[in-house]
Amino acid sequence: MGRPDFPFFDCDHHCERARTGDATLGNDFMNHARSRSLLLAALVIAAPAVTQPVWAAPETPRRPNVVILLADDLGFADVGFRGGAIETPAIDRLAAEGVILERFYTAPICSPTRAALLTGRDPMELGIAYDQIHPWYNGGLPPGAESLAKAFQRAGYQTALVGKWHLGHTQAHQTPNAHGFEHFHGHLHTNTDYFLHEREGGHDLQENGRSVDATGRYLTHIQAEEAVRFLEERDPEKPFLLYVPFTAPHSPMQAPEATLARYAHLPKKNYRRTYAAMVHEMDVAIAEILAALDEQGLAEDTVVLFFSDNGGFYAFGADNAPLRGEKGQAFEGGIRVAAAIRWPGKLPVGGRFDARMSVLDVFPTLASAAAVEIEDDDGKIDGIDLWPALGSGAPVPERGPLFFASEIPVPGLIQLGVIDGDWKLVQVVRERQTETQVRTLLFHLSEDESEEHDVAAKHPEIVERLAGEIRGWRSRHPMAGYRGTLVAHPGWVAPYDWAKAVTPGELLQPSWENELPLPRALVDASKERGILISEEAVQRIEAKLARERAGWEKVAP
Ligand SMILES: [Ca+2]
């Protein structure tokens, strides 16, 4: 196929905004719109005079499959379709066959983006806004939260996650299997070693809670293979949701030697060569997933969304040009990311969507595209449904401010941002025990997307208003939310196997039996957790300490 059923706005040739759409589907979507955001979107869309659609969809449209491909710390400029130096033919293919999301925004760091993606909820309210979830944290997604995977699962989808989770790892209710993914193959943490599959010395590769030993194999290769395996072995009677959060190109900076050799012309400085090889490997994995869709004749029945979870990090080889800043910052380079979406026949070929889209919008938008119902009776979902705008050129709903925060990589140094219309305020906050310093910058994004001209001094009233918006947003942070703690407490040691260290759900159920006295099972599990520090792990840690001591002696005068 390849041709859209309608003209599209903002396409390469500046074609006129289409006023036609799929009414049958559209009405159906709205019948399912239960969140306040979706209802708001419906109201806004209903307001302008829009020509009625000219064709009707089948009465029982087949639900599309959904594939979400998430890069980790990919630079804004590091895709071929942005003219980057690294070749990414598979990502470029997606962009060429679909729509480039020109202004796609995420959080500046990993965990908040993933929380927003899966729940459609503001990471600030979830308490996962300032920091990523480190191995020494014991929190994660709230157990009862509605999620993308739960909603699709209820609608009859087979759901799978292959790759990095990073939304909780200590208790069963935090794991992917508890949040709607019936199949999970991957690792719970970030920064997992690509060859050893370890985090902090603990083994971190599993399938549905059971450890997987594939030591020595490159993680991105495993992820491609497992994603393709899911596509080949899935239940062909069901539509599917496949979420593939790649580990790449996040640190540790590791790539197979043969791939590194392909990029020998790039400098080693700042890991640029290794980073390029890691992006290359991710692109090859995406090519394999797209080829599997093609081979099974699924491409036209499948929505594929690609984006990065935050901007690239210069110290690890990324490039966010022409945007200012990087991962961990509220400048555009930290939060505006490379993104594209493809659904042949339903979305234009070679389209460009210029409106702002947030990672918060992904859940309501994909649910709308697939006519999947979201359970949100208490109106907790903050994202808005952009499917009518994307799919049929309907006006983009008005939206409130978008907020950003990060306390990575320096605890006590917080970057905050708010985008409201064309205005963007950035605050760099330095919290010390005796004082708090705030540096404030104001930008007009439509005139200055590279944030080169701070106009805060010219517009004190706008600064004051937006600073108030940020204060209000931060006040929604729960007491128990995370603040940056980049290093573990002294004495903290990882379990030797993260999959085995997850406390089973049945031990955490609130019941009389499980309160006082402590159930035998919990006592036994605690003992088991006690021996999770194996003799082998102790020896490994001691050997590492000995190596470090030797290193110190070597450099001692
Ligand atoms: Ca990331």
Number of helices: 15
- The level 1 CATH classification of the domain at 65-368 is Alpha Beta
Mean pLDDT: 85
Which spans of ≥5 residues are poorly predicted at pLDDT below 50?
A: 1-59, 510-519, 527-533
Termini gap:
71 Å
Task: Name the shape in a single word.
Answer: globular
In the CATH hierarchy, the third-tier topology of the domain at 65-368 is known as Alkaline Phosphatase, subunit A
Compose a concise summary of this entry:
With 557 residues, this protein is an alpha/beta fold. It has helices spanning 23-31, 36-46, 89-97, 110-119, 123-126, 148-154, 219-233, 257-262, 272-295, 332-335, 362-369, 387-392, 460-474, 520-530, 535-555; strands spanning 65-71, 99-105, 158-164, 183-187, 198-199, 202-203, 206-207, 210-211, 240-245, 302-308, 336-337, 339-342, 351-358, 402-406, 413-420, 423-431, 436-444. Among the domains are: 65-368, Alkaline Phosphatase, subunit A; 505-555, no CATH class.
What labels describe this entry?
about 15% strand; about 550 residues; 11-stranded mixed β-sheet; Alkaline Phosphatase, subunit A; 17 strands; 4-stranded antiparallel β-sheet; binds calcium ion; alpha/beta
Structural features, described:
Among the domains are: 304 residues, Alkaline Phosphatase, subunit A (3-Layer(aba) Sandwich), CATH 3.40.720.10; 51 residues, no CATH class. It is globular, with a radius of gyration of 24 Å. A hairpin with a 6-residue loop joins strand 14 and strand 15. Strands 1, 2, 3, 4, 7, 8, 9, 10, 11, 12 and 13 form an 11-stranded mixed beta sheet that branches. It has a 4-stranded antiparallel beta sheet with strand order 14-15-16-17, with helices on one face. Strands 5-6 form a two-stranded antiparallel sheet. It contains 15 helices and 17 strands. The N terminus is likely disordered. The chain has 557 residues and is an alpha/beta fold. It binds calcium ion (CA). Calcium ion binds next to loops.
